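Handout for the seminar on molecular recognition.
Each group receives one record of this type.
Step one: identify the two inputs.
Step two: read the structure output and locate the region that could contact iron/sulfur cluster.
Step three: write two sentences on what you found, then compare them with the reference statements printed after the record.
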Amino acid sequence: MHEANHTVRHDWTREDVRSVYQQPLLELVFTAQQVHRQHHNAGEVQLCRLLSIKTGGCPEDCGYCPQSAHYDTGVERAAMLDVDEVLRTARQAKDEGSTRFCMGAAWREVREGKDFDTVLEMVRSVAALGMEVCCTLGMLTASQAERLATAGLTAYNHNLDTSPEYYGKAITTRRYEDRLRTLEHVRKAGITVCCGGIIGMGETDEDRVGLLHQLACLKPHPESVPINMLVRVEGTPLAEAAAIDPLILVRTIATARVLMPRSMVRLSAGRHSLTREAVALCFLAGANSIFTGEKLLTTPNSEIDEDEQLFRDLGLRPMRYE
Ligand code: SAM
Ligand code: DTB
Ligand code: SF4
């Protein structure tokens, strides 16, 4: 079934997804690598830079997140950055080889007013550098999505995070349907979708299958699929979650690659805690994008010189502009 046909499909059943996910790992990685080579240049990995433009004090209480005002995590609430500061970071990221710049805000949803106007200005300025511009600002209305599109936004990140069944155990103040509605607004506005999830929150294989199934049935597929491994931050309810085996990350990435052949699959949070060999396996499994720079939003990320060394050792190149 899936081995022979590597075309883009949106009619995956949960059983299909389960049977891809459950294959012997090396069979799965081999299939994923074939799919990857059919649709992408396997020697290139896109570098993306994240910046938290509005940190901490979020009214939402997502059990994994260091920025929620509900938990004492040591992340200080900060005012919104100014446009010049954001632009400086974006220019530096571009000089360091990033082709995509993603701005995150610790908001449950976007509210009208000065802060949103500032975000629109940031989007216009970063787009003028010729970089792909992504934002992750929480829930959006249709009209806010349209204004972001007009400002030049390339992509909007809004994760489904986990399966519909497990969602309520990790997040209690918003619903899966709310997430799907924002994704629809983003699509309708003509912005590309960046949507993935987090593994290592105590979910089962079946929950990971459930998440991947939801993503693979979105039509069109999200152009970008971030796979995050939980960063366990002290003070959050998930601080003591059991560490997840990196081979489960490899399995999740490989399944995402097989199900969504054309998408960029991004090895996102948690990379810092992986060995170089595990990162290499993630690339072999079809990951073709990473975040670079010393920080993700609030937690540490891999050092840029270590990444450069790894790219040299693996013979990979940062993706250039198209
Ligand atoms: N507030 C917005 C929202 O929730 O959509 C945007 C920012 S939020 C920090 C973006 C994503 O980061 C979340 O959906 C989640 O997938 C991921 N994330 C947050 N905390 C994380 C953690 N500790 N480990 C891994 N991923 C995390
Ligand atoms: C995504 O899926 N991962 C990134 C990005 N989208 C915004 C965020 C990871 C955040 C990790 C925790 C932190 O640094 O605060
Ligand atoms: Fe707020 Fe987003 Fe963190 Fe949830 S994931 S607490 S909405 S910043």
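Reference statements: The chain has a mean pLDDT of 95. The radius of gyration is 18 Å.
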